[in-house]
């Protein structure tokens, strides 16, 4: 999976009703694998919607019509970058290419380099509008889209990256999205950087 496919791939899972047929997970439930360890969000109502070699995705519906949340971890091929600025530009270019202007309107977005984890990452924050959000089998409407994502290069796999993403789509913004997103993203770790805990094993990105 390429970087430029990640944004739209996660948005496709925001369609209401998809979650109903998937596996319910406990708040904070841990999933571990050889490359990345993942924790489900620490709140009720989440379901494991996808588990593949490139993605582990959780979703839940919100309280209002068409409202939904996605928390996902995705693995992708990542070209080399010669500097921090080049790495940020690489992530920014591909993320922005993901959002077709005929559907998505950007209100504000930021890209910030971080080496807090000891390997290169870019923190992406955005607020926009999905002008053709699907809220039912036939119905579409304009909804606000909030996204927080951390894009990182795996330290032991130089041409491989992962993204930990948390998004909300609804008629209004969620005020504590930063806190929810940070909590989820902090729970996505490379195995050597955290102690073992109770585990389940979906196919891991």
What does this structure look like?
The chain is an alpha+beta fold. The protein has a single domain, classed as Mog1/PsbP, alpha/beta/alpha sandwich (Protein Transport Mog1p, Chain A). The chain is 17% helix and 38% strand. It is built from three helices and ten strands, in the order αββββββαββββα. An eight-stranded antiparallel sheet has the order 1-4-5-6-10-9-8-7, with helices on both faces. It has a two-stranded antiparallel sheet with strand order 2-3. A hairpin with a 6-residue loop joins strand 7 (104-114) and strand 8 (121-134). Helix 1 packs across helix 2. The longest helix is centred in the middle third of the chain and has 14 residues, at 84-97. It starts with a helix and ends in a 19-residue tail after the last helix. Mean pLDDT is 80; it is low at 1-5, 14-20 and 195-204.
Question: Quick recap of the structure?
Answer:
By secondary structure, the protein is of the alpha+beta class. It is built from 3 helices and 10 strands. 17% of the residues lie in helices and 38% in strands.
């Amino acid at each position: 999976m390429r970087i430029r496919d990640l944004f739209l791939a996660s948005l496709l899972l925001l369609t209401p009703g998809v979650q109903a047929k998937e596996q319910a997970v406990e708040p904070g439930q841990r999933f571990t694998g050889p490359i990345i360890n993942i924790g489900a969000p620490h709140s009720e109502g989440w379901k494991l919607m996808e588990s593949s070699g490139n993605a582990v995705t959780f979703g839940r519906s919100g309280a209002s019509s068409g409202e939904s949340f996605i928390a996902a971890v995705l693995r992708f091929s990542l070209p080399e970058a010669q500097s921090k600025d080049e790495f940020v530009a690489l992530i920014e270019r591909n993320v922005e290419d993901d959002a077709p202007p005929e559907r998505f309107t950007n209100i504000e977005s930021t890209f910030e380099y971080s080496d807090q984890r000891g390997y290169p990452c870019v923190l992406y924050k955005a607020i926009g509008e999905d002008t053709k959000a699907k809220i039912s089998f036939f119905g579409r409407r304009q909804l606000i889209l909030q996204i927080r994502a951390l894009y990182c290069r795996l330290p032991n796999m130089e041409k491989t990256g992962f993204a930990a993403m948390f998004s909300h789509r609804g008629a209004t913004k969620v005020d504590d999205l930063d806190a929810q997103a940070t909590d989820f993203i902090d729970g996505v770790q490379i195995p050597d950087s955290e102690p073992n805990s109770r585990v389940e094993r979906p196919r891991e990105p």
